[in-house]
Amino acid sequence: MKLFRRGESSTIDESVDPSVQDVEQTATAPTSTTPGKGRPTPKRREAEGKRRGPMAPAPLTRKEARARRKAVKGTKADRKAAAADRRAAVQERRARMLAGEDKYLLPRDQGPVRAYVRDLVDARRNLVGLFMPMALVLIMSMFVAPGLQTIVTLAMLVMMMFMIIEGFVLGKIVNNRVIERFPDTTDTGFKLGWYSFVRASQIRKMRAPKPRVGPGDAV
């Protein structure tokens, strides 16, 4: 077997393809790293603050603080005009609610079924509507003549009994009429009867929405 000598090994090394040597040098060369920003990422609040601009310094005196509040609120005339507009808007919504516009009613009063029930109750002369004024008169009579306490208590018990009976009868009538007029409705039963009873127990002038029919009118 023929052994390689020192001169022959150097000859073989020099005969290696130069492109291979370039690849090996590239693989062994240290890779470059992306340098860091050197600062933390700004928070969202700080970024928004920079976009809006610098913040005003805190007021040094109470007078300066009051001046800033007045500048934010506007002039006295502007505040009065805004308050007047709000009052006018509230009054307009209340007027439309009392007129019975469905958009401005409370959820319990909305819908054609509830409007029909109100008309049925308003067209009747209900004894239960006299309970509140009569109860007030009886209570005042107890202060004027304390000896009438027993009689007043008995009279109020009798009135409450009539109220319960009339409320039951009124709820029955209202439910039957609603089923005839709106056969597909699910708004019936005790809830509808209670709604009609509460409406009937109120003084006519204090009912909201306002009655659209008079006592004795056909509905």
TrEMBL record:
Annotated region (Disordered), positions in chain: 1-86
Polar residues composition-biased segments: 22-35
Transmembrane segments: 127-145, 151-171
Descriptive protein name: DUF3043 domain-containing protein
Phylogenetic placement of the source organism: Bacteria, Bacillati, Actinomycetota, Actinomycetes, Mycobacteriales
One Pfam family here: DUF3043
Biased composition regions of type Basic and acidic residues, renumbered to the chain: 75-86
Domain of life: Bacteria
Alphabetized UniProt keyword annotations: Membrane, Transmembrane, Transmembrane helix
InterPro entries: DUF3043
Tagged with keyword Phosphoprotein: no
